[in-house]
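#help-structures
NK: newbie question, is this the right format to request a structure? protein is thiopurine S-methyltransferase
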Amino acid sequence: ADIGSQKDRVVTKEEWLRRWETGNIGFHRKQGHPLLQKYLDVLLNGRSGLRVFFPLCGKAVEMKWLADMGHNVVGVEVSEQALKEFFSEHGLPYCEEPVPEISGAKKFQSTSGNISLYCCSVYDLSSSILGKFDGIWDRGALVAVNPCDRQCYVSLMITLMEKNSSYLLVTVSYDANKYKGENF
């Protein structure tokens, strides 16, 4: 797709961390996304106990919602602050441990065991670390990924999908030459 003037734009890890530190997180939704509710049947496809991946998860409230339904949720986010806020805001106890395969990475896991959130770059992950998923909920990851990284991101998502996975993607379409927003 032609993304016009944004094709060479790059948002750094430091910029994302600064946004979390300053509370400049207009992309975070305090309520679950209505499209996930609307298309939940597509994601679940009549199945229970699914493994669902949340790329660039932030502190998405849908993670707890799906975990409360009996699904296992795995997310990844570069901001440790966002992950700690997720557990704190939901009153969920968790433990923290290093990820041996990734230098400096941490895994935050609910004591119930059904929510595991990785603090690292999504590109540091692989199916050998995470396993594969029955579903992926991409509410804002693809539009946040730098255009130069998109192919790598898509390739990674494909390797994380089980044979009969469902991938729900929320995206936006606009003229990037007229709008200089935070999304790509």
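mod (FA): yep, format's fine, and the tokens are attached above. The two ends are 11 Å apart (CA to CA).
NK: thank you!
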